[in-house]
Protein 1
Amino acid sequence: MRAPDQTIHIGLNAPPDGSVESEAIRESLSSAVRVGRHLFLGCDETATLERVTDLGGGRFGEHRTYKLADLVDLPGKADDEVDVEGLAWEPPYLWLVGSHSRKQGKAKRGMDFKEASEALADVDVDDNRYLIARIPLEDDPEAGGLVPRKSCPDPRDPERTLTAARLRGRGRNSELIRELSGDPHLRRFIKIPGKDNGLDVEGVQVDDGRVFLGLRGPVLRGWAVIVQVEPVDAKGGGRMRLREIEAGGRRYRKHFLDLDGLGIRDLARDGDDLLILAGPTMDVSAPAGVFRWRGGMRVQEESLVPADALERVTMLPHDVQGGSDHPEGMCRFDEGDGPRTLLVVYDAASASRRDAHGVTADVYALPPRPGVLGTVVETLTSFVTRDGEG
């Protein structure tokens, strides 16, 4: 396990209107994406989107919370949790994805057998979890920077209007679930709770309209799964549909990856490469780490990616204090021409990461991309940056 190269503090102390506790936000971070001087964050216990701003000195603050129901027509009730598990930025849209998973009750310490057995038999299906959406961001100086909007002018073409939209279908009848219900690999896992190796989407990355969905589960005999789709505007506004991308009219593509038996917790882009945050699928203590799929963002067909085709970038802290510190979200953290870095945020952050105002997250320097030229350029960039600081 590698120590982080830097630690930052994320101030999260401004609940929206009393309907969500700040502490709940701090304890349930599940996704992150950097957009300029802002970090947008998702939580797996709320129906909100969080924004913090770079204050310098390794601190992010000026916390703002945006209700997702004010931005997009949610499949379920406005305050029902969305379980935001992935965020991605492809200008001019911020993309987000819910887990698409069923939620099983927990047997907790102190329960008797009857209470525990009833909890374990309770499986909920929350419509808001079945969400794939895009939301435009608008630069609003009065609001302190980029703000998510239901609609706004396109900064590249003011005569064009950008609109928020979600994939059509409601809840478990979403178009993605309808497509996967006939899949020979995934259909049997749709009704299994996510934490029991059932279907569980936990990462998203977008490239030119192609949306990559990383699955925490199922892991199939050690193989993790990425589902690739291409949402396009549907008639009527506010909705997207899946475009046909495979023979026979299939609207999705699959990629199988050998991540040492781990599932996918998040995805991030590094040039043409896809970085994969991997961790245990089920509720067990197991390693967590980041892998590199070289050329993953440019893949044009379904693929099987063996372990020797994946680079292990770094191992991460996991369950360092027993039941806490779960690496759940990551994003590229660097700006401009400086050394490339990766930010990792933790769900169930340990007490050492939390204070009354926020949480800490880890920053890791990324090794040079494969290739002689990339190594030389990045080494020189790193040297010049360090020299300028010293």
Protein 2
Amino acid sequence: MFIHEIENWTSFRWNADSLSDAIARTNRAIGYLTGRLSTIGFDSQMAATVEAVTHDVVSSSEIEGITLNTEEVRSSVARKLGVTVPDTKEPTHYVDGVVEMMLDAVMNYDTPLNHDRLFGWHAALFPTGKSGFSDIVVGRYRDESMDVVSGTFGRERVHYRAPEPERVLDEMNKFFLWFNDNKDCSIISEVCNSSSVVCMHSSV
């Protein structure tokens, strides 16, 4: 049985008390970093922001098995934030799309999430309508089944089977209602609000 096959599977609960220490440690670390940033001057703050976003973009892509050119990412981030960095390298359209999506997610974390915004991120990630050599449908939800599989041909192992395509729209609507509801995400919001301080220098 997969998680989405459990009745009321999105009704997650957690013990806030058990998370309080971890959140407090995170907030202290963010406060320390913010204090350090405030002493190094505006230009250095912006350079640090460029490096932090560049690291996030490159590391996030590696999770998907995609290796991005760090210099291209840094150049794209710097240009979009209006920062001058040495040894710039012209980024590809794909890198620009990934950076645009990441900056929107980080800088506008408190903007409600909806279908159009998500589809915009999707289009930014795949401006050519291709993933590698495969054609993909951009800007809408999938209309076919999706499995996470490993193993050689004939000996495949299914690790996860996603909800059937006819369920996706309804499940996404439920997700947006949860994600945009601050009352249900008070703990997450507390960390996000604190974490955003580090990146807010780029919005000055």
Protein 3
Amino acid sequence: MIESPVPFPKAVLFDFDGVLVDTEWAIYQSWERVFRAHGHALPLDCFNQCLGSGYTHWNPADHLESLTGKTYDWETINAERQKRIHADLAHSGLMTGALELLNWCRKQALPLAVASSSSHRWVDGWLEKLGIRDRFVSVLCRDDGLPVKPDPALYVESARRLSLPPADCLVIEDSENGTTAAHRAGIPVIAVPNRITECANFELATCRVSSLHKVLELLQHSPLAR
């Protein structure tokens, strides 16, 4: 039997982008095209600074202006980026292994929540589109008025809404900012990097695995799993 490195949780808290849906590649590509059009590269290790934080702690737009010494019509540029992002994601579904993990958690009667630095319009729109909004007891986003990751507030409040101590929950994350937020909240966190975040630093994670299938495997082998 494989011994799970995380205790069996009383609830599971999910990040959204890059964990439940592979949105981050399309978002990165939209920015990479903008940078390339203005003669600059956007390395993944640089872009990772904003993942999980909603551009609060590092903004690609500010970075490009610092590189070029110019200002840009971001309202027009961002409107075009959003069109490309939505087109690129038009046929996207859940991340591989996500549905199996959600179904297993439901069989275990584990309450679920989403804590995201993205907007409710974005997150709730996806959850409704994918038919999984009713799986989550709580969905917290940046427009709920809490500091975004790496601040722990979103995760602390998610645990409070579930009437659980943070240490009794488990976070599933894909970004360094999100992993830091969970760690600061005192919640065990499994990092599941994707093609955007695989270069990030996950030293604060309880453990790092390669997929949501691996997360499910760890939970299934936890001593209290039914």
Protein 4
Amino acid sequence: MLIQPTRSTPKNLSQALILIVEDEHEIAAILEAYLERSGLRTVHAPDGHSALTLHQSLKPDLILLDIQLPGMDGWQVLNEIRHKSDTPTIMLTALDQDVDKLMGLRIGADDYIVKPFNPAEVVARVQAVLRRTRVQTVDTRQVIRVGDFQIDLESHEACVFKDGQAITLDITLTEFKLLECMMRTPNRAFSRGELLEACLPEGDSLERTVDSHISKLRKKIEQLGIEGVPTSVRGIGYRFGNRS
């Protein structure tokens, strides 16, 4: 039986995606339960190779990485990740010698937790690292994530997370700009005029043009089984609206 964690995730950290790299399924399940009860999302990789694949495709906000993995160990996984990104990483291991901790920190680990551990403490450490790194991570990667939606401002790609998988949205540049504008302040209702000025190219001067682009964007999102995004706000315009 799992004990309900007493700490809750701060609102600005909710919906962060945590990649758990752990070959012991019971430990992974406990971590998943505690993290998800704290408002975080999780995905599990049982070995190093699948961890690298998931890291590349899902771009998690933080990695909980076991060291003693089958095949490729945690040191090798972290080394590979650090060649490509600065995703915050917390090492989980039964190795408690100072030399092991120093090795992890030298390679680029952000924290180090020794087994056996208190799952509630792991959640607290995850939240602390996320708070410390979230601003610089967003600035560096230029990624905006709200609910199940994520947009990458560098690659101009938008995706939706369903069942732990990232599904790319096939949208136009204008549709991407509309998503970006609304996702930056997802609770705000934007008038058609505001969206027209911020997102549409010169020459598209009619407010009904916004309705057309929103309708096409909404239909593409509905194909993934998500209704009402963006949300219509009567008498005003539109709001992003995804709060899952």
